[in-house]
Structure formats: structure tokens, C-alpha cells
Amino acid sequence: MHLEEFAEGNSILHRLDPRVKLMAAAPLALLVALMQGFQGPARGLLLAVALVAIARLNIKKVAVRLAVVNVFVLMLWAFVPFSYPGTEAFSIGPLAASREGLALALGITLKCNAIVLATIALLGTSQVMNLAHALVHLKAPEKLVHLFFFFYRYLGVLHDEYARLRTALRVRAFAPGTDVRTYRAFAWLLGMLIVRSFERSRRIYQAMLLRGFHGHFPVIDHFTLGKKDMAFGALMAVALLIIWRGL
Amino acid sequence: MHISEGILSAPVLLAGAALGAGGVAIGLRKMDYTHIPEVAVLTSAFFVASLVRVPVGPGSVHLALNGLLGVLLGWMSFPAILVALSLQAVLFQFGGITTLGVNTFNMAAPAVAAYYVCRPLIRNERRLAAVAGFSAGALGVAGAVVLIALCLITTGEEFLNLSKMLVAVNIPAVLVEGALTAFIVLFLMKVKPELLNLKENVDA
Asked: B170: domain range?
């Protein structure tokens, strides 16, 4: 499973302290999500595009992500302008699209793309484990972070288990269709995956006890807050103010 | 089956975040340190399972399996779903960080409902267990879809038609999810009854 597609680059954003990036991404996303109209969201989108450019990400991969996210946005365009009351902009047969509805759909499109791009540029450029570690520093509940840690650590392992079970089905000439046989086969496969995950978790816990686990993980890597991190934090604060208030 | 960024209104986002946080807090209190590896690796399994495409006629549906998760984990479904959704938000931008609370609640609340309604019916009687399994799966998806539709309609009347369509297109998913969950429950009864807190093996 190749998951952290955007974390492998080498830009200033990749090197920044993940704590600072989290502290910048969360308020930015929240601010854009809560704004009305489309001027604010448009400014947010501008900043997000700039961040993606600074992160020097693979444009093709970013475009693929955006395309997936915009499928739902497209559905909105198909429904919202025709359901929102207001002055008519154009009509297709009996359906009339309102200007207000079109403005709303545009606002949502800008917001959605702005937040998604900002998330990719700010959070996608960190290793997931580093983000989890940063959450500990930002006082997230420790149990929740531990849960996340084990979940992410064993995701790849369980995916391999799943791939093995799928191979076992395939070598037995399994051809999925819409029938009870298929559903039962999938159910047994998933049931087996759950059983194996349960048994593995037992072994993990025993191994932890063996190594003296008592509810606490020692941290080996430490973050250092440098001048660049401080400067980036300050810049982002100014950018947020501009997005909120305009120039 | 998550709501994307930038759509919901502020009150809906905030209410969702508050309800989600409340559920997660209860779940974390119920989850002591001995449970963490179990809940976590089970969450990994469910995450992988949600990638499976199950054929339905010419198309296919993805499984949510939140009903089954609820049957197995109860209130701990809240933290389990939260960590899975956060990973999706950061890595794939499905859902999103501002909608994390509302999406967690929409998926986890039906899971907890399945825990209270369906789990007690899963005893050593296979037919009743199959019915309970089907209901848990169907309730999980149907509950989530209805909650998503409610979030959209509370945001604005203009989302009414879209919400109706969302509910309609998810009806096959509800049925498939119910069928699969029933089979999985029967499988677990036979192979790993202790996962369902059943003491002895059940005869086929």
C-alpha cells in the first residue's frame, strides 16, 4: 500500500515542524469552511494554490485527487442551482436555475477545493506518524493517538492479509457476480480478515507486555521549533487575516 | 459516504463536532489500555474491508461495515471511526478536517444503535443471529445516509432534492450491507465466537 504520496518531496513545506503546519492548517480550513459568499473562499483558494506551488508537488497527482473530490461538487451543480429560489439565470426545459443558487454552488466549489489543496500542501507533506506525534504535543488525548498509531501501523499488514485472501479466491477461479454465492464468499473473506486481525492484536499486546508496556510510549525523535517555523507561522497568521478581512 | 469540505453550514458543523467529540470521549473512557491494540487492528481490518467493491447488477458498492463495527465494539466505534476518517482526510481528502466531527457522528451513531438493538439478539440461535446481523448492517448504512441527508437539509432547503437522490441511490447499498453483515456474523459465530462474547461453538 503506497499511501503517503505527497510526503516524499523535498521542499520548505516538507521540512517545517509538523506542529506548526497543523496549527496553520486547522484554522485555515475552519475559516474557509465557515465563510459566506465567494470572495473569501477565492482568497483562500489563492493561498492554497500558492502553498501547493511552494511544496513543489506532482501536479498530475494533485489533479487526480482534486478530480475525485469534485465528483460530489458536480452533483451539487446538478441540483442546487435548480432548487434555490431567486432570480432566474437560465432554464433547461421546465427547470430554472437561479443566480443565487449558482453563486452558492460556486462558493461551495471554491471552499471545497481551497481546503483540499491546503490540506494536501500542509498536512500531506508530513509523514503521517510525524503528524500523530505532533498531536501528542498539541495535547490530543493520548489514548486516541495510541489508537491511531496502531491502526496506521497495521493497515499495511492487514492489507497484505486481504491481498492473500483475494489471491486464494482467484486461484479457485472465483468470479464475482450479483448472487448469494459471491456475497457469502466476500463475507467469509472479510470474516477471516476480522478473525486474523483479532488474533494478531492479541499477539501484539503480549509482545508489548513482554517489553514492559505500562501505558506510555517513550518518544525518540524530538521536534525543534526553528526560525523558519516561526516565520512560517507568522506569515500564515497574516494570510489568514487577509483571507478573513480582505486587503 | 462522507460529506466533503465547504458544504455544511456553521451550526451543523459545530453541532456535529460537539456530538462527535462527546461520543469519542465516552468511547475512550470505555477503552482501557488492554483494548487499544485490539480496537486499533480491528479498525485497520475494517478500513481495508471498506475498499472492497461488491458487485450489484452492472455496478458495485463499497461496504461501510459500521453496523458490524458497532456490534463488535459498541461505543468504542466512535474513536475507531474517528481515527479511520482522520487518515482518509489527511491522505485521500475524502471527507475532510472540518467535517471530521460531523462525519464521525454520522457513521458512529448508527453503529452504537446497532450495538444496543442488534447485539443482544446475537446468541446461540443461528436464524435469529442472521436477522440481527442483517438489521445491524442495514441500520448502519441507512442510519448514516439519513443522518447525512438531515445534515444537508438543515444546512439549506436547496439540498432537499440532492438529499432525496442520495437516499434513493443508497438503497442497494443498504441491502447488500445487510446481507454481507448477516453472513459475517454467522461466520464469526462459528469460527470465533468469543469475538461476539459467545462461550461455546455453535453447530452449523
From this structure: 10-196
Nearest CA in chain B to A110: B6
DSSP string for residues in A102-146: HHHHHHHHHHHHHHHHHHHHHTTTS-HHHHHHHHHHTT--HHHHH
B36, A34: Cβ pair inside 8 Å? no
Cell of B141: 448504512
How many domains does chain B fold into?
Answer: 1
DSSP H helices in chain B: 10-30, 36-49, 66-73, 77-91, 100-117, 126-155, 160-169, 171-191
Mutation to test the B interface, candidates A45, A104, A151, most B Cβ within 10 Å: A151
B contacts of A153 (beta carbons < 8 Å) = 40
Residue B22 lies in a domain: yes
What's the CATH code of the domain at B158? 1.10.1760.20
B4 assigned to some structural domain: no
Calpha distance A113→A103 (Å, rounded) = 16
Between strands A95-98 and A88-92, the pairing is antiparallel
ipTM of the complex: 0.93
At A92-145, the pLDDT tens digits run 888 889 998 899 999 999 999 999 999 999 999 999 999 999 998 898 999 999
Looking at beta carbons, which residues of chain A come within 8 Å of B138? Answer: none
* Closest in B45, B83, B96 to A194, CB measured: B45
Rounded CA-CA distance A134/A122 in Å is 13
Helices and strands in chain A: count of H runs, count of E runs:
9, 2
